[in-house]
Amino acid sequence: MGNEAIRQVAEKIKASNSVVVLTGAGISQESGVPTFRGKDGLWKDFRAEDLATPEAFHRDPVLVWEWYNWRRGLIKPLKPNPGHYALVELEKRIPDFTLVTQNVDGLHRAAGSKDPIEMHGTIWRVRCLECKRSFENREVPIKILPECEACGGLLRPDVVWFGESLDTKILHAIYTYLQRAEVMLVVGTSAIVQPAASFGIVAKRTAGAFVAELNRSRTHQSPVFDLSIQGKAGELLPQLVDYVRP
Ligand code: BJW
Ligand code: ZN
């Protein structure tokens, strides 16, 4: 017995040239990465909103680096799951395919996705507050406080915190893809954090895209989309690929 809604999405994908997929923390949940919201998202009683800000880093860089060290240690041994691999398969089958992820864990790249747009940066890169250079860094734990090898300045995680603007080039590119999307999948995101939370709506309103949400639970955006399919990304996405496969 197949999943009728997933089959419907597959038919739309087969009939389209341009597909955009937006992923959030939910796609990495089955790999063992904690999501941000809900009880999972807590670290020593802090919420992500208390730590993922420039103000928090300015006030207490040691605390923020301790949080990132904890997360780097947690993520380092983890592997992509069937949801990540299904998106690699999908990419091979669709001429104009764009993967945009809010995740900083690097698991889409690890799975083999060619060029995922990591709109919130990556936990595996650091950036100097002084000279602004960025460097790949996979040390776990990283030495607290880490210093720039070029100028000795304080290093920060190369991620996008609350209140910070996204790279304008990246944002521009994303809107270009959204404006020509025929199908969009919104996978494993609570759709609370802007601007990513508006991408599905933008694709629908500006491109008339068919937008399907794949999430373990319903979200506040479920009623807006063409389809809202409840289930685990690691199960739904492989089913979708099976239907798309000729
Ligand atoms: C499963 C599953 C399974 C589980 N299968 N599903 C307009 C209105 C109000 C506020 C703002 C606004 N515009 C901007 C703001 C401010 C702010 C914002 O949006 N705040 C909200 C809280 C309201 N946005 C910003 O500051 C952004 N910057 C910006 O807009 O610049 C311009 C500007 C500046 C100043 C003022 C105004 C404008 C930047 C946002 C950066 C977010 N950064 C973080 C941290 C990254 C670094 C790090 O990780 O260390 O990004 S926050 C955190 O949330 C992280 C995530 O990428 C992001 C989204 O979370 P996500 O992926 O949705 O995860 P969850 O946990 O929320 O949801 C998981 C979902 O998966 C759930 O739905 C589950 O059901 C599901 N799930 N298991 C399928 N197995
Ligand atoms: Zn520097």
Description:
There is one protein chain. The two termini are 19 Å apart. The chain has a 6-stranded parallel sheet with strand order 3-2-1-7-8-9, with helices on both faces. The protein has a 3-stranded antiparallel sheet with strand order 5-4-6, with helices on one face. The protein is built from 10 helices and 9 strands. It is α/β, with parallel strands linked by helices. It has 2 domains: 2-33 and 78-120 and 165-244, Rossmann fold (3-Layer(aba) Sandwich); 35-77 and 122-159, 2-Layer Sandwich (SIR2/SIRT2 'Small Domain'), CATH 3.30.1600.10. Helix 1 (4-14) packs across helix 10. Helix 7 links the parallel strand 2 (96-101) and strand 3. The longest helix has 15 residues, at 61-75. Bound molecules: ligand BJW and zinc ion.
